[in-house]
Write a structure and sequence with these properties.
about 300 residues; globular; eight-stranded parallel β-sheet; about 15% strand; Arginase, Chain A; alpha/beta
C-alpha cells in the first residue's frame, strides 16, 4: 500500500438539507473523469461505486431534516471509512456535508487503531459546528464538526469513540458563521482563518503553520473540501453559495501545499449539486483540485473549454 493507492467511495447523501441535488454528485465526478485523471498521474485507482444508507428504526423528527436517513448514512460511512483507510487513500464523493458525520469519525477510529493523532483541514464557508439542539434550520449538514469533536446533543447518532480535539482542526475560508457557532468556537482552540484574515495575510501562512503541527505530531490528515469554499463565480454548483470565496489560484496553492506535505490520508469532496452547475464546470474544477492534491503542478493543468 502506498499513498498513491486511491479508493473512490460514492456517497450520494442528500439528507442533510432541504434543497436536493447532491445525490447526483458522485456520478458527476465520474463524468468529469476523476478516475481517469488520477490514473493519469500514476495513481492506482479503485472505484467502489456508490454506497446506500443503512436502514434505521429512528422516527422522523419534527425539526431535524431527514434524521433517520442521516443517521443511517453516518453508520454506513463510518464503517466504509474504517474499512478503506488501511488499504489506501479514500476519497468520499458527495453528497452533502453531513457525510462527514460518518467519514471523519471512521477515519478517527482508524487513526486510533494505528496509534496516530488525526488532524482535520476544513475548507468551507461555514464552520458546521452546530448540534441538533442549536441548528435553527434543522439541516444536519451544519453539524458534522460539532459531532466529531464530541459536542452534546447527538443522542440519536452513534457514540463518537475518538473525538477529534479542536486543537487538531484548522478551518480556512470561513465567511458565514451563525451567532451560536461563533460563541461556541470562542471557547475552543481551533485554528481559524476566515476570508478577512486571508485577504490581509494570504492563504499560505495559516496552512503552513497547521501542516507544520501535523508533521511534528506525525499525524494523519483528513481534508474536507466543500464546494462553497470556492468563490461562486468559479464554482456555482452548490446550494449554499457565499460570495467572496477562495480564488482558483488560492485553491490550487492549498492543494499543492497539501501534496508537498505528504500528510493527506483521506479526502471528502462535498456539496456538489450538478443540477446547479454550468456545463459541468464545478465538477471539473473539483477534479482539477484533486489532481493538484495528488501531484499535478499548477502549470501542468490542461486547457479546457466550457463553450
Amino acid at each position: 500500500m502506498t499513498a498513491q493507492d486511491i479508493i473512490l467511495i460514492g456517497a450520494p447523501v442528500d439528507s442533510g438539507k432541504d434543497r436536493k441535488g447532491c445525490i447526483m454528485g458522485p456520478d458527476a465526478y465520474r463524468t468529469a473523469r476523476l478516475e481517469e485523471t488520477l490514473a493519469g498521474l500514476g495513481c492506482n485507482v479503485i472505484d467502489n461505486g456508490n454506497l446506500s444508507a443503512e436502514t434505521t428504526d429512528i422516527p422522523d423528527h419534527d425539526h431535524l431534516v431527514a434524521l433517520p436517513q442521516t443517521v443511517g448514512w453516518t453508520r454506513t460511512l463510518h464503517n466504509a471509512a474504517v474499512e478503506a483507510a488501511p488499504k489506501g487513500l479514500p476519497i468520499f464523493l458527495g453528497g452533502d456535508h453531513s457525510l462527514a458525520l460518518g467519514t471523519v469519525t471512521g477515519i478517527a477510529d482508524h487513526a486510533a487503531n494505528v496509534g496516530k493523532p488525526l488532524f482535520v483541514l476544513w475548507l468551507d464557508a461555514h464552520t458546521d459546528y452546530h448540534t441538533p439542539d442549536t441548528t435553527s434550520s434543522g439541516n444536519l449538514h451544519g453539524t458534522p464538526v460539532g459531532y466529531f469533536t464530541g459536542r452534546d446533543g447527538f443522542d440519536a447518532f452513534p457514540v463518537v469513540n475518538n473525538p477529534v480535539p479542536t486543537a487538531n482542526i484548522c478551518m480556512i475560508g470561513l465567511r458565514s458563521v451563525d451567532p451560536e457557532e461563533h460563541a461556541a468556537l470562542a471557547d475552543t482552540d481551533m485554528h481559524i482563518a476566515d476570508m478577512r484574515a486571508i485577504d490581509e495575510f494570504g492563504i499560505r501562512a495559516p496552512l503552513a503553520h497547521f501542516l507544520d503541527r501535523v508533521v511534528a505530531a506525525d499525524g494523519l490528515l483528513h481534508v474536507s473540501l466543500d464546494v462553497d469554499f470556492l468563490d461562486p463565480d468559479i464554482a456555482p454548483a452548490v446550494g449554499t453559495t457565499v460570495p467572496g470565496g477562495a480564488t482558483l489560484r488560492e485553491a490550487h496553492l492549498i492543494m499543492e501545499m497539501l501534496h508537498d506535505s505528504g500528510r493527506v490520508t483521506s479526502l471528502d469532496l462535498v456539496e456538489l449539486n450538478p443540477f446547479m452547475d454550468e456545463r459541468g464546470r464545478t465538477a471539473s474544477l473539483m477534479v482539477d483540485l484533486t489532481a493538484s492534491l495528488m501531484g499535478r503542478r499548477v502549470f501542468d493543468r490542461p486547457t479546457r473549454s466550457f463553450v
